[in-house]
Amino acid sequence: MIILRTVPELRAFVNGWKRVGGRIGLVPTMGYLHEGHLSLVDRLGPRCDKIITSIFVNPKQFAPGEDLDRYPRDFDRDEKLLAGRGVDALFYPANEVMYPAGFLTYVDVEKLGENLCGRSRPNHFRGVTTVVSKLFLLTKCDAAAFGQKDYQQARIIQRMVEDLNFDIEIVICPIVREPDGLAMSSRNVYLTHEERKNALGLHRALEDVRILYNSGERAASLLIRQMQTTFQSIPNLKIDYLDILDAGSLQSIGVLTGRSVAVIAAFVGKTRLIDNVILEAKG
Amino acid sequence: MIILRTVPELRAFVNGWKRVGGRIGLVPTMGYLHEGHLSLVDRLGPRCDKIITSIFVNPKQFAPGEDLDRYPRDFDRDEKLLAGRGVDALFYPANEVMYPAGFLTYVDVEKLGENLCGRSRPNHFRGVTTVVSKLFLLTKCDAAAFGQKDYQQARIIQRMVEDLNFDIEIVICPIVREPDGLAMSSRNVYLTHEERKNALGLHRALEDVRILYNSGERAASLLIRQMQTTFQSIPNLKIDYLDILDAGSLQSIGVLTGRSVAVIAAFVGKTRLIDNVILEAKG
Question: Is residue A283 part of a domain?
Fold first, then answer.
């Protein structure tokens, strides 16, 4: 696996692949990798000739006071994990490579980023869409994989790709969970032993709402109430948001008819975690 | 010359060229072509294997009350002109092709679009950068040409290309003028016989400031005063802006040291015209 740190290095590599007609897959990450990230690599592998993974803790998607400075990093471990998974190139740029002096351009997806994570993390999605656009253009990728755990992010990126006419296949991969159900996240490392147990409340609330949905319940208000009840039975969790929305538009719905998504974000101590489940009647 | 109206048509064509390693040049226009546009085609020709011209009167770069509805159009004439100049493909999309229902994504270059044309045309440059990004991604162009007449636009696009890592060579081409000096513009067709004469005031003001600059004057205030004096000697012109700025940052300067630009925008009757001249000491 080759490690590329600058734009000219990456360009030379990418253009070489492109010249021989290679199909490039991109897995953009912020590092501190877990099986969720690696499942994205595995998923793109068979669809692409070459896989690039990027590791870049993107300052533009963190608000002041968030965890940019303490976001966990372990480059050596990440490098080994990716090489072991057959990644061809690791793009690992410095901040000045991505945002040189004089940087002024942003990509914005309106509306879809206003609620949920966008409400408590102002400018977060603007940072995400800007850096993802840059990574798409730098890697000239034909496919890119994102995790369903960041459901709103995935929807926003799909919208951006369609609106700006990126010719890129966006692959959304299922949430990978710990054996007890906790959604994998680089931020799980922040949790104390006690918090780690309480963090399971997110998954439990989503499991309970899925059971109720599968039993035939379609009223959003009742389904949401079930999530709240489960959630409140677990100590030391603070809801950021908890909702059931149309899976496409991310807007509120009264009765679940098509594909919907139950979403949850909560603070476990100081750590903010998110999780979600798709609610869809089986054909 | 092939005419392409939809995204799948354009994609099939572009991907066919890309497979054989062709270098693609793009000349984006709003149609009603003049020698200024055609000079862009001529300039890209030797640098590219295939030339695509787009004709799209982009509604997102017009404010309410501007001339979107009456913007001049003559597709048959444009088609003949482009075919005669050796253009390979003409991309001519409908509004619904470029902005289908549910469109939400915008590209924004901060600061550079705030003054000059951005002040009197709110959201204009956001519309420009968004549509140009789309055209770049649709055509997968390796080079694109823009006219220096829209100087601020050219600078904003250069900034966007650098910031978002578009791997595209941006070629800025000199202003093409009528024999008497008026900068060519599709909007010149709006001018009455009398207005056409007065419109020369833009060019005269810029010529006078160039002469003063070449005589050694470097104080921005004196150069600007010269432009104003010339300009005010011509009847029925209303200044929108008139300034001398750093050619890179588009910020005001006191003394002209490096590359600068004298810019002017004025209403001639109801028609808004722009023009500019680069002020740079010869090596």
Answer: no
Contact A107 B110 (CB under 8 A): no
Instruction: Determine the distance in angstroms separating the CA of B71 from the nearest CA of chain A, rounded to an integer.
Output: 25
- CATH number assigned to the domain comprising residue A77: 3.40.50.620
Sheet arrangement for strand A169-173: A2-4, A89-91, A50-55, A24-29, A143-147, A169-173
Question: What are the pLDDT tens digits along chain B (283 aa)?
Answer: 999 999 999 999 999 999 998 999 999 999 999 999 999 999 999 999 999 999 999 999 999 999 999 999 999 999 999 999 999 999 999 999 999 999 999 999 999 999 999 999 989 999 999 999 999 999 999 999 999 999 999 999 999 999 999 999 999 999 999 999 999 999 999 999 999 999 999 999 999 999 999 999 999 999 999 999 999 999 899 999 999 999 999 999 999 999 999 999 999 999 999 999 999 987 6
Q: Which two structure tokens, joined as six digits, stand for B176?
A: 């093409």
**Structural domains in chain B (count):** 2
Q: Which residues of B touch A21 (CB under 8 A)?
A: 19
Token pair of A14 as six digits: 């990418």
How many C-beta atoms surround the C-beta of residue B64 within 10 A? Answer: 6
Inter-residue contact B90 to B1 (CB < 8 Å): yes
Report which of B282, B217, B204, B220 is spatially closest to residue B254, judged by C-alpha positions.
B220
Residues B22 and B144 in one domain: yes
Asked if B146 and B172 touch (Cβ cutoff 8 Å), the reply is: yes
Residue-range definition of the domain harbouring residue B265: 186-277
Same domain, residue pair B23 and B124: yes
pTM confidence score: 0.97
Asked if B11 reaches chain A (Cβ–Cβ under 8 Å), the answer is: yes
Spell out which residues of chain B touch residue A165, defining contact as CB-CB under 8 Å: 7, 134, 137-138
